[in-house]
Amino acid sequence: MPARFDGVAWKPTTLEDPLRKYIFNGSLISAVFGGWSVLRTQRKGPRDWRLVLMWVSWGASVAIAVGNVIKASQDAQREEELEALEDTK
Questions:
Q1: I need a surface site. Which of 12, 25, 39, 82 has the fewest CB within 10 A?
Q2: Strands of the chain, DSSP E
Q3: How far is CA 16 from CA 1, 2, 85, in A?
Q4: pTM of the model
Q5: Are strands 4-5 and 10-11 parallel, antiparallel or unpaired?
Q6: Interval 66-84: pLDDT, tens
Q7: Of 18, 32, 31, 28, which Cα lies nearest the Cα of 73?
């Protein structure tokens, strides 16, 4: 089945390609570009306590983005299960 759009994020309706939900997620793409920016800052800028905070902030944003993808996937799966349960009644 193809993915569907619910107004917030693309949610795959099957578990055929579980990596796709991570690759096409906007928040995760944004976090990757943020990591690229931090990497460029590390190469060109001074290495002090601000750089450490930038890496910590980037790690937190990646963790939040991955958590949101997992939560959206679980919500979609529960919704499908409820729809299937209602169809059998």
A1: 82
A2: 4-5, 10-11
A3: 9, 10, 21
A4: 0.68
A5: antiparallel
A6: 998 889 888 888 888 888 8
A7: 18
